[in-house]
Automatic annotation (TrEMBL):
This is Uncharacterized protein. InterPro entries: MORN. PANTHER family: RADIAL SPOKE HEAD 1 HOMOLOG (PTHR43215). Gene3D superfamilies: Histone H3 K4-specific methyltransferase SET7/9 N-terminal domain. The keyword Repeat applies. Residues 233-264 are annotated as: Disordered. Keywords: Repeat. The keyword DNA damage does not apply.
Amino acid sequence: MHRLGREKISQQYVPSDEDFPIVFEIQKYNGPRNRRSDPHGEGKAKLVNGYRYEGFFRNGVPHGRGRLALNDGFRYEGRWRKGQKHGMGRMYYPDCSWYEGEFRKDLRHGCGVYHYPNGACYEGNWFGDKRHGVGLYSYAREKIKLRGTWVEDVARGAAEVLFEGCRFHGYWDGEQPRGPGCFTFGTDIMVRGKFYCDAKEGGEEKTLVWQPEAIEKYEYAKLPLEPLPLPVEESDVSATSSSEEEECDSVAESLASTIVIGDE
């Protein structure tokens, strides 16, 4: 039987507050401006911290499609909204990992794919910059895939583990399966049993053990529950959503948006 848990699940790069400019302060700009002399339209800018942005502006901040090149290997290409990464985009990180998918208010949020530097990959749901919901994790060194429910960046709940030639259906807890489940071999045979941790005598290390209980003909109705999307509280949604009020422009802003061409 396959030995699970030899390779730990990788963690994605988490940028610190120092990794990104809090204020989009422009040192040099080349492109159109509005009547307030703010960058407005498609242009290029160099920021005071040395970062460079090329793309669309709206009233002085990135808005629309654009590319931001930061120091130390950071790079973002995609959609912006009022100076924040918002919409579809691709982000490259200093550890050679990268993410492609949805952003909301500068956070990975929605559906996206994260490629880890060791070759592992996660494809699925994100919420507030964390893996949250149903996702498929492909291990780097082992030809194993874990499709499960993720809670606050941790795989925990109903899961399927895909091997070459068979699947495990059961419950996943952090780094390994736990409790009752079953292995299926195509649609012919299923082996029901349970996983438990066995402590060696005289030692603290615990070994994950599979204890088979019955070999039966495959029946879909007898399989454990499949991974399901997680419910999200309305307060959590509003914290990362764009309100209708934010989407609308005031009359004053519209009048100030008349473009005047100018270079620096």
